[in-house]
Amino acid sequence: MGHDTQVQAKTKAQFEYERHHNAVHMRKQVINFAIMIFLTFLAFAVVVADFSAYFIKPFILLLAAVQVVLQLYSFMHMDDKKGHHIGVIQTFVWFGAVIAFTFFLTFLTIIWW
Amino acid sequence: MSSVAVANKKGFGATLWDYLTTVDHKKLGVMYLLAGTLFFAIAGLEALFMRIQLMFPNNDFVSAGTFNELLTMHGTTMLFLAATPLLFGFMNAVVPLQIGARDVAFPFLNSLGFWLFFLGAIFLHLSFFLGGAPDAGWTSYASLSLYSPGHGIDFYVLGLQISGAGTLISGINFIVTIITMRAPGMTFMRMPLFTWTTLITSALILFAFPPLTVALFFMLVDRMFGANFFDHINGGNTIIWEHLFWIFGHPEVYILVLPAFGLFSEIIPVFARKRLFGYSSMVFATILIGFLGFMVWAHHMFTTGLGPTANAIFAVSTMAIAVPTGMKVFNWILTIWGGSIKVTVPMLYALGFIPSFVAGGVTGVMQATAPLDYQLHDSYFIVAHFHYVIVGGIVLAIFGSMHFYWPIMFNRALNETLGKWTFWFFFIGFHLTFFIQHFLGLMGMPRRVFTYQADQGWDLFNFISSIGAIMMAIGVLILVFNIIISAKSKPLNCRDYWGDGRSLEWALKTPVPFYNFKQTPLVRGYDPYWLEKHEGNEEGMTYAEPLGDIHMPNNSVLPLVMSIGLFVAAFGALYHPDGVAWSIPVIIIGLAITVGAMIVRSLKDDLGFHVHVEEIVATEEQLYGKGGNK
Amino acid sequence: MEETKFTPQTWPDKPEQATPEAKNKFVGIWIFICSDITLFASVFATYLSLKDKGPAGMEFSAAELFELPLAFVMTMLLLTSSLTSVYAMYHMKNYNFKGVQIWMTITVLLGLGFLALEIYEFYHYVHIGFGYTQSAFSSAFFTLVGTHGLHVVVGLVWIVCLIVRNAKRGLNLYNAPKYYAASIFWHFIDVVWVFIFTVVYLMGVLG
């Protein structure tokens, strides 16, 4: 298996392209981070501002969902099409999320006193 | 390590050390098989004792308390510690060969999974000697188990926690192995069906075992550290245990039965000498069963009082599972249809499996009907149903596959004549035991009772049922005898023992060298070995690479050390409610051993080693004579 | 091969997935995270069904117990630590080992800050009588947030081990996937925390 790995020197153009690509990618990550901070701030703000609970609850759950998708696809690189078997990984993650959702649904509806 | 294959005469100590530290999937497969057989025998004896107790009305062979312990340990052991490891044994031994891999993705974790399972199982069984076994049923409902005196339930919780962690780790390992380690050309839709079912089963383990871990943790802290998850006086709710347990428990049924389906899907085409009918629909049905398996757990709780809406939803989703299962049954029948059938022992088991399992499935759909379930709940009808599924499906698959894969795993064959005796004793005994229990249930006999009164119309049926159990025991004894004489028989040293092998594992000459494939095979289609055979390829496979150095993982004793650490810590937790002074220190020491071993693993590089071309050539000549594996 | 010395010019584009072992690790950590999803879902669902449940006349409720400022600071610490580990991975791609170590160390420090606040919070609750055995609510709360805290501890020990072990030898294809797996795990801890601060703290305060 060890012999599958090859050491290859990159050409200067390729090297610089990848450097640049990485830097652009990092800039995008910082923007995503700013969005996450903003969403968090928003979530705390609507709670402190004391809106109706019927508005706040779905709203902050939505914010959480957006933030989690950002984490998964941007910080954790689930959007990376060249990632190894990333399609299989996505299937597993979302299948897990669907199952997790059924847990919440049943525990909130058919467990009572 | 590379010299291990060459020097085949070793002292007992060296062999033992080799097995304690091995990361070879073939050896771990054998270890799973041995451990599973041990616990299968224990749990089978427990069943036999129960049947002897129920043979006559008002019998006093065992006391009521002992009977509760027997039935709890029978269920727990059979599901967690016998069926699961036996199937894991086949997965370990066969799946890497089927996909053309040299080992699993994480050989270290493979070994860790085995040792956690084994020490957890030993811990659970120590309960017999240390103050009484668990006695609240294998489901261990919190409303009952929370107030069970003694340490029985504590053994159950801690033992299953440890062995469950091992199962989860093995599951992760299999998923990654099947995703990443397939040989070139082995696309997902060319994978043999046993590999497919192993993948889906492992996915079910992946999602179903964490809820069990959580439920066991709640029970652990409730009983030993004063938490209040299930204690209604302090706001807890025992229904939470039922939900978490069945969120795990129902997928567990499919975790066990899907590999059995896979094994029969391997056996049937070989002996019908025909390609598996409807391969892609088989794959689709497997995935669908896996998905639906998670959406039905509350059908075990119809009588809990979930309300008509929830009951209806879960009833419908439960019945839906019959559709993909039916697809599979029809595909097996159509594979056999028109084939040139050889009735060997594995095929005999497959032919016995189809009607038995269908019977179990049909009663399952009956119970899915919520109103009818109110009548059937907690009666012997349920006992009959799940034994038809488990014995008629899983145990027949395990016995059949033992005969089928014995040549690959041990380079020996099991005797066919004795195998047929085992089959007929076991098969007739099985139907005798459980068919009649349907009617006992319909007559009103409740399950989990240690005795009954005479002249209720149950005497004769119970007697017949017990006779059947004794016949099953005789069948198993013949199998054990068969195994013992096979160990003394001559090695086979052959390829394709059954003559009609189709998938890659049959292309290898036995004994399989520790690196499996000297060159990674190139898979050119579904049923690759059959393909190559029919094109006249003597070597059985096309290679994807020239002969070169092979990279293999190092052996390690750390998995055993980690497992021992948890084993020690479990004793500390067990005696915590007794207020002994040493309980907390023992927990800390145990966990320190485990965490320490993990840190050592993290800090010490494990780069594996390379087997050089000359060594490969030497090994092959030593195993197969001049010219190697030709 | 794993110990080959690289230069920025020969360092592969995807060092975390460059060898077969690295690919296994990459898929493996993700599959492990999938199992963690249902682990947390089970604890979470239990918490929701036991929220505010306790012995008759219990004086504690989520609405009065939780304090938003503390939760806000903890959230910010953990979110930022997620970004710093992204920075570490950025430097790993550029074969800048010093950058990796520095940003990973900052991640650890932020994680330690989070942990300290969590310990303070737990200590405070126990001090006012809301201990683990007080009620079903307290058991469920401490188990949920404690399970997350345990993940933080594991992540910290893991990253510290990596930083110390590799301090003298620099990046290679053997340890790059390990750093990457640790950073994926660390992000997942953050994902779970997003749900915890939303559902436990924010919705808890709403009552």
Blueprint of the fold:
The complex is a heterotrimer of chains A (113), B (630) and C (207).
Chain A: H1 12-48, H2 53-75, H3 86-109
Chain B: H1 2-6, H2 12-21, H3 25-53, H4 64-98, H5 107-126, H6 142-145, H7 152-180, H8 193-224, H9 239-272, H10 279-292, H11 302-305, H12 308-320, H13 322-336, H14 345-368, H15 370-376, H16 380-410, H17 416-442, H18 459-488, E1 521-522, H19 528-534, E2 542-543, E3 550-552, H20 558-574, H21 583-603, E4 609-611, H22 613-624
Antiparallel strand pairs in B: 1-2, 3-4
Helix pairs in contact in B: 3-4, 3-5, 3-18, 4-7, 4-9, 4-16, 5-7, 5-20, 7-8, 7-20, 8-9, 8-10, 9-13, 9-16, 10-13, 13-14, 14-16, 14-17, 16-17, 17-18, 20-21
Chain C: H1 20-50, H2 62-65, H3 68-93, H4 97-127, H5 136-166, H6 176-206
Helix pairs in contact in C: 1-5, 1-6, 3-4, 3-6, 4-5, 5-6
Pfam family, one (chain B): COX1
Pathway (chain B): Energy metabolism; oxidative phosphorylation
Membrane topology (chain B): Multi-pass membrane protein
In short:
Chain A has 113 residues and is mainly alpha-helical. Chain A has helices spanning 12-48, 53-75, 86-109. The longest helix of chain A has 37 residues, at 12-48.
Describe the protein in words.
- The complex is a heterotrimer of chains A (113), B (630) and C (207).
- Chain A is mainly α and 113 residues long.
- Helix content of chain A is 74%, strand content 0%.
- Chain A is built from three helices and no strands.
- In chain A, helix 1 (12-48) packs antiparallel against helix 2.
- The longest helix of chain A has 37 residues, at 12-48.
- Chain B has 630 residues and is an all-alpha fold.
- Chain B has a single domain (23-450, 463-492, 510-516), classed as Cytochrome C Oxidase, Chain A.
- Chain B has 22 helices and four strands.
- Chain B has helices at 2-6, 12-21, 25-53, 64-98, 107-126, 142-145, 152-180, 193-224, 239-272, 279-292, 302-305, 308-320, 322-336, 345-368, 370-376, 380-410, 416-442, 459-488, 528-534, 558-574, 583-603, 613-624; strands at 521-522, 542-543, 550-552, 609-611.
- In chain B, the strands form two sheets. Chain B has a two-stranded antiparallel sheet with strand order 1-2. A two-stranded antiparallel ribbon of chain B has the order 3-4.
- Chain B starts with a helix and ends in a 6-residue tail after the last helix.
- Residues 1-7 of chain B have low confidence and may be disordered.
- With 207 residues, chain C is an all-alpha fold.
- Chain C is elongated, with a radius of gyration of 20 Å.
- Chain C contains six helices and no strands.
- Chain C starts with 19 loop residues before the first helix and ends with a helix.
- Chain C has one domain: Four Helix Bundle (Hemerythrin (Met), subunit A), CATH 1.20.120.
- The chains are: A mainly alpha (113), B mainly alpha (630), C mainly alpha (207).
- At the A-C interface, helix 1, helix 2 and helix 3 of A face helix 1, helix 3 and helix 6 of C.
- Chain B: Residues 11-524 form the Cytochrome oxidase subunit I profile domain.
- Chain B: The chain crosses the membrane at residues 30-50, 70-91, 112-133, 153-181, 193-220, 240-264, 276-298, 310-334, 346-366, 386-406, 418-440, 460-485, 557-575, 581-600.
- Chain B: InterPro entries: Cyt_c_oxase-like_su1_dom, Cyt_c_oxase-like_su1_sf, Cyt_C_Oxase_1, Cyt_c_Oxase_su1_BS, Cyt_c_oxidase_su1_bac.
- Chain B: Pfam families: COX1.
- Chain B: Keywords: Cell membrane, Copper, Electron transport, Heme, Iron, Membrane, Metal-binding, Respiratory chain, Translocase, Transmembrane, Transmembrane helix, Transport.
